[in-house]
Amino acid sequence: MTEAVHTLEEAAEILRVPYRTLRDGVYAGRWPHRKISERKRLMTDEDIQAVLDLTATQPSPTANPSEFAARTTKANVLALMDG
Q1: N or C: at which end does the chain have fewer Cβ atoms within 10 angstroms?
Q2: What domain range includes position 61?
Q3: Which residue in 62, 56, 60, 54 sits closest to 33, CA to CA?
Q4: C-alpha to C-alpha distance for 10 and 6, rounded to whole angstroms
Q5: Domain total of the chain
Q6: What is the pLDDT of residues 12-47, one digit of tens each?
């Protein structure tokens, strides 16, 4: 069975991030992808999962849920922007 391949636009929709954020991370080499040519990059389902794993944060055992939600959102946005 072949693995699904996505354009960066499709991958950005799946990840729910702006296209430019994903594109910048891919072209900077921060996130896994498949280089088809100098101007074309694709992402597999495995690449998308790797991006999710790289940007995931875990709650501390004593954190309250609303505090965690605020930190997680901010941490994910900062991770996406900074790589």
Answers
A1: N
A2: 5-82
A3: 54
A4: 6
A5: 1
A6: 999 999 999 999 999 999 999 999 999 999 999 999
